[in-house]
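Before relying on records like the one below, remember that each one covers exactly one chain. Contacts with other chains, cofactors or solvent are not represented anywhere in the record.
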Amino acid sequence: MEKNPSNVEEIKKKLESIMNDALEAASRDKAFDLEKRSRELGLSDAVLYSARKVLDRLQLK
């Protein structure tokens, strides 16, 4: 994916959506499938890796 301001903003919005979904699932003691959700949003493996790192740090994975 080529970097340009619109792509960056689109990825940021999708990543924010994933983080919100993960936090909501954690608050309800529900499982959250990070890979499935990132594929639904069409995110690259690099973005999935970044999301996984953030969730690991938050211990929500």
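Residues 5-58 form one domain.
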